[in-house]
Amino acid sequence: MAAALALVAGILAGVLAEAGLPCCSALPHFKKRITDRCFHHSECFSGCCLMDLDSGGAFCAPRARITMICLPQTKGAINIVCPCRVGLTCISEDLMCSRRCHTI
Fold it and tell me: Which range is the signal sequence, renumbered to this chain (predicted)?
């Protein structure tokens, strides 16, 4: 049974290649979920790869909610603070305070 499945898979891969269609390895990779390890913000579904100071790596984190500390945009590969969720704007209401997510 396993040999038959392998044979069918091989035939399909050959047919797809001859037809000019992408094979399994050429299909787009899925975005990583919250808490998954990452190296760049583009890997994460949320668009935020946050630095993990405890382990020295980075992980996918959710975007900042209303009144949370934020960055106006994602810069570089990983961040120490995430940008705001869709519909919120990262602004500072006072020069002495850090930026926070607000609705405008």
Answer: 1-17
User: What is the full DSSP assignment across 7-47?
Assistant: HHHHHHHHHHHHTT---GGGSPPPPBPTT-B-SSGGGBSSS
Pair of tokens at residue 9 = 């898979």
pLDDT value at 19 more than 80: no
Fold for the domain defined by 30-102: Lipase, subunit A (2.10.80)
Provide the residue ranges of all domains of the chain, joining segments of one domain with +. Answer: 30-102
Residue 84 has what pLDDT?
Answer: 93
What lies within 8 Å, CB to CB, of 45 at 6+ separation is 31, 32, 33, 34, 60
Given a cut of 50, is residue 17 above it in pLDDT?
Answer: no
Report phi then psi at 11, rounded to 5: -65, -45
